Amino acid sequence: MSSVPADRRYAVWLSDPSHPAAEIARGIGYGAAVLDIEHGAFDLADLERFVPFLRALGLEVLAKVLGPERGPIQQALDFGADAVVIPHVENAAHAKAVTAFAKFPPLGDRSFAGGRTTGYRGFTDEWVTAQDRGTRCLPMIEDAGALEDVAEILALDTVDGVFVGPSDLSLRRERGAYTREEGDFADLKRVADAARAAGKPWVLPAWSREEKEFALTHGAGQLALTMQHGALIAGLTAAFEETTSLAKQAR
């Protein structure tokens, strides 16, 4: 395990179960990993092995699940994820229904599985309370209806915070492709203000400098700083451009 302290405020975005990518991120000081199960190359066998590996490294695991449904939400939590990020939440009523799958009765409607999270044994009332308190449920704000209802969504007892999807939000707010313009940041501020009023965190994928500055200024609880593939492109591009520049000078 790395001797560099892990800072859970800063997450790496992983699109496949790359053990080296996780180890490199942890060695740098990242303290969390967002698993893009919705769009990435993860199957159940991958998650069953990869989630405990990440936690053993000291990374907090945020599982962006396949969809707003009981099965994907419960599976991620049963494998040991610290948080579920639920995409495609349409509005407050939809959020109330789907976030219930992340919390046990009477708070929610999560089904019990006597697997990894219980040490493959039974459970107690104290364990249920600890699970509900310790595993976070973060519905995504990426739909116009969810943005409209963000305060109501944050008020739900089954919601521990929100995770913003800026690209889909821009498309669904009819601004077209996400370009980090005034309307985009106005929407982000609306989320940040609602989260602050509710006393709950908000999370932002912040690839650009201006997004990072905005998130830090407006009190984001966590930032995803770079995508796995984006970091690979940046590294490969830098080496290529440096070498081609040197080659031109050598002619």
From TrEMBL:
PANTHER family: 2-KETO-3-DEOXY-L-RHAMNONATE ALDOLASE, PHOSPHOENOLPYRUVATE CARBOXYLASE FAMILY PROTEIN
Taxonomic superkingdom: Bacteria
Cellular compartments per GO CC: cytoplasm
Similarity section: Belongs to the HpcH/HpaI aldolase family.
A Pfam cross-reference name: HpcH_HpaI
Keyword Cytoplasm included in the entry's annotation: no
Record keywords, A-Z: Lyase, Metal-binding
Transmembrane residue ranges: none
All copies of domain HpcH/HpaI aldolase/citrate lyase, residue ranges: 9-200
Gene3D superfamilies cross-referenced by the UniProt entry: Phosphoenolpyruvate-binding domains
GO molecular function, one term: metal ion binding
Alphabetized SUPFAM superfamilies for the sequence: Phosphoenolpyruvate/pyruvate domain (SSF51621)
Protein name: 4-hydroxy-2-oxoheptanedioate aldolase
